[in-house]
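User: quick one, sequence for these tokens?
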């Protein structure tokens, strides 16, 4: 995957998972051995991430992420976004 594809995948996750609630998209976007290291998120694996999305969308049904900037180098993508 090149750097532009990696940045696009991040934006696709926001659109499909967070904006639309399409939890099935998680399986196509993340490796099965995915492990999160997100402080205070409460999730580490894909099942916990799905639950986190469900609970967050239930509490904030009109959640919206706006990607302000993205940088990619090698196999890393950094995204600066705003959530409303």
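Assistant:
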């Amino acid at each position: 995957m090149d750097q532009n594809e990696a940045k696009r995948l991040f934006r696709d996750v926001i659109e499909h998972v967070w904006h639309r609630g399409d939890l099935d998209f998680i399986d196509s976007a993340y490796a099965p051995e995915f492990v999160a290291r997100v402080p205070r998120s409460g999730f580490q694996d894909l099942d916990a991430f799905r639950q986190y999305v469900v609970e967050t969308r239930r509490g904030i049904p009109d959640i919206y992420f706006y990607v302000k900037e993205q940088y990619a180098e090698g196999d890393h993508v950094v995204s600066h976004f705003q959530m409303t």
